[in-house]
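User:
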Amino acid sequence: MPEMGRLSGFRYRDVIKRLKGFGYAFDRQASGSHEIWYNPRTNRYTTVPNHPGDMPEGTLRAILKQADITADDFLNRK
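Assistant: Predicted structure:
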C-alpha cells in the first residue's frame, strides 16, 4: 500500500503544470468548474476540477489514474 499524504497539498495550477509536462493540453470546459485535458500522444483524457485551495488526495489519484501517470512519475516531474 503506498504511503498516504504524498499527493496532498497540490493546487490546481501545480497539477496542471505537471500534466502539461506529460503532454496534456486543455481540451474543453466540462460541467461547472471541471476541465477536460487531453494527451494526443497517448489519446487519453482526464477531468480536472478547477477549485481554489488544495486538491484532495483522492481527487488527484483519480486524475492520475485517468491520465495513466504513476504517483512517483507525477511527484518526480517538476
